[in-house]
């Protein structure tokens, strides 16, 4: 039987056309990576990938200031945001010693499943109470610039929307589009929590002397609370400088007292 044009104007045809128009108008599907909390939905996925970056748990211990060298320190509640500038932007803390720009040339390239990445590690510090131990990373962007940057531009919600040079990676083009959920169930302060791998290929054309900026926003899906969220980069000599044994802890405790680093001692005391 010959198909007539009128077949496409039947109620079923109209329904199909409406459905396709509806689907075309929907934003890209949001990705939520729940790294490690079986009580949350979706089910835990470790590692997970968003826009080419890999997120995975990393329980390296000891971590924390004095053992590793954070370049980004953020702390506020119930949300927190900021980047590693030296202008004390947003909720950054301990500027400039543990909140400062990096240079691209200082970062080590790390191989993961045959691909090259720059690796960043977050030491999450959330309280040891189940109701408050969860936190979400809701926005993450990485930038490079040959010059120092200091934008504090915000949108109507108070979220940073400025430029820090050339955008190299963007986890969430808008708040709520993608996020990473995490349960801080380990010993909290002083133990690493999350590794973030950003593809080296995202940095094509950048110079070794370029500054690297990372912007983070936490707490939208799951509130931030407790101590600092500290991020360090795996740099050329970083890996070999991390002690592998807790036998060094007394040494660090002594060093902490000698150089008067309350932050260091904080890291070595039980939560
Ligand atoms: Ca929390
Ligand atoms: Ca931690
Ligand atoms: Ca915290």
Helix- and strand-based class?
alpha+beta
Shape: globular
Query: How far is it from the N-terminal to the C-terminal residue, by CA?
Result: 78 Å
Mean pLDDT, rounded to whole units?
Answer: 82
Bound molecules: calcium ion
The portion of residues forming beta strands comes to 25-35%
> Helical amount among residues, as a percent range?
10-25%
List low-confidence stretches. 1-9, 22-26, 238-271
What's the main sheet like? Answer: 7 strands, mixed
Number of strands: 14
Number of helices: 4
Radius of gyration: 22 Å
Number of domains: 1
**H/E series, N to C?**
HEEEEEEEEEEEEEEHHH
How is this structure best described in words?
This is PEP-CTERM protein-sorting domain-containing protein. Residues 1-30 form the signal peptide. Keywords: Signal. A hairpin with a 2-residue loop joins strand 7 and strand 8 (115-123). The chain contains four helices and 14 strands. The chain has helices spanning 11-25, 238-241, 249-258, 262-268; strands at residues 31-34, 48-50, 53-57, 72-74, 80-83, 102-103, 109-112, 115-123, 134-145, 166-170, 178-183, 194-199, 211-218, 229-233. The chain has one domain (28-242). The strands form two sheets. Strands 1, 5, 6, 9, 10, 11 and 13 form a seven-stranded mixed sheet that branches. Strands 2, 3, 4, 7, 8, 12 and 14 form a seven-stranded antiparallel sheet that branches. The model is unreliable at 1-9, 22-26 and 238-271 (pLDDT under 50). The chain has 271 residues and is an alpha+beta fold. It starts with 10 loop residues before the first helix and ends with a helix. The longest helix has 15 residues, at 11-25.
């Amino acid at each position: 039987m010959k198909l007539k044009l009128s077949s496409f104007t039947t109620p079923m045809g109209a329904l199909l056309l409406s459905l396709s128009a509806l689907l075309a108008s929907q934003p890209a599907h949001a990705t939520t990576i729940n790294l490690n909390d079986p009580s949350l939905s979706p089910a835990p996925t470790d590692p997970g990938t968003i826009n080419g970056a890999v997120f995975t748990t990393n329980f390296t211990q000891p971590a924390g200031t004095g053992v590793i060298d954070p370049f980004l320190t953020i702390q506020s509640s119930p949300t927190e945001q900021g980047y590693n500038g030296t202008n004390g932007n947003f909720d950054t803390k301990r500027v400039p010693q543990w909140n400062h720009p990096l240079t691209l040339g200082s970062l080590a390239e790390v191989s993961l499943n045959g691909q090259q990445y720059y690796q960043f590690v977050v030491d999450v510090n959330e309280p040891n109470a189940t109701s408050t131990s969860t936190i979400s990373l809701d926005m993450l962007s990485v930038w490079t610039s040959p010059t120092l940057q200091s934008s504090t531009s915000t949108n109507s919600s108070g979220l940073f929307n400025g430029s820090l040079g050339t955008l190299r990676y963007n986890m969430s083009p808008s708040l709520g589009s993608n996020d990473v959920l995490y349960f801080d169930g380990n010993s909290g302060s002083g133990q690493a929590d999350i590794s973030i791998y950003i593809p080296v290929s995202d940095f094509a054309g950048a110079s070794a002397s370029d500054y690297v900026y990372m912007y983070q926003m936490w707490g939208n899906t799951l509130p931030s609370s407790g101590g600092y969220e500290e991020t360090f980069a795996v740099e050329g000599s970083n890996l070999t400088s991390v002690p592998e044994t807790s036998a060094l802890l007394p040494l660090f405790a002594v060093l902490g007292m000698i150089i008067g680093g309350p932050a260091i001692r904080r890291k070595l005391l039980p939560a």
